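note to self — DONT lose this again. spent like an hour looking for the file last time. sequence + predicted structure for the chain T wanted, 126 res
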Amino acid sequence: MTLHLPHPFVHEQSQQNTVLDPSALGPGIEDALRAVMEQPQLRLIGFRCTADFDAIDDAIGLMEQVRRDYGVILTELVLEGADRADLREVVDEALDEACARNRYPRPSVAFTGHPAEPGLPALTKS
C-alpha cells in the first residue's frame, strides 16, 4: 500500500509585494492598511512619499505604527521627486532623525525621477 501525501506548497499562492502612498490615501490610511494586511495575496513592504523631510518623517512614523499594530517590519521607502542637488543630505538627515525617534530600522530607499501625478494608484504591486 502506497500513501500519497500532497506536496505542502501545491495550493500556496505567491504574495505580491505592495507599496502604499499615504499622501494619496489621506485620512483613509488606516482602512487601507487594514485592507492590505487582511489580503493573504498581498505583502505590504513599504510606503511611497515625496523626498522631503516632513514626508519621510511621517512615513517612518507610519512604518512604526504598522510594526506595533501588525507585527510587520516594512523595509522599503520609495521617494519621489529626486531631482534636487542636496537630495542625499536631506534624505540621510530625515531618515536618521525619524528612525532614531521611532526606534525603527532604516529601510532601503528607492528613488523615482518625478513626483507622482494625480490619479496614480495609491496601491502599487511589484
